[in-house]
């Protein structure tokens, strides 16, 4: 994340870098998925309760999500 912010500060367009690095891979749906994933991470960093369903739904029943879903904003874990 730090590197991405440094690139932005220098005016480097990260999506352009991706399309040059991996031509043909970054069509509109792939870019939308990447941006959605990044937004989810930013919101999770702010509030661990944000959209936990994105990870929990359709997950294995043995996963111990209660420790994670019990977190709140400001929790230092």
What does this structure look like?
The model has no long low-confidence stretch (mean pLDDT 81). The protein contains 5 helices and no strands. Helices cover 56% and strands 0% of the residues.
Please describe the structure with a list of short key phrases separated by commas or semicolons.
77 residues; mainly alpha; 56% helix
Element-by-element helix/strand order: HHHHH
Low-confidence blocks of residues: none
Number of strands: 0
Main sheet summary: none
Note the overall shape: flat
- Binned, the helix content reads 55-70%
Oligomer: single chain
Compute the number of helices: 5
Distance between the termini: 19 Å
The secondary structure category is mainly alpha
Brief summary of the model shown:
The protein is mostly helical and 77 residues long.
Question: How are the SSEs placed, and which strands pair?
Answer:
Blueprint: H1 2-9, H2 14-21, H3 28-46, H4 53-56, H5 66-69
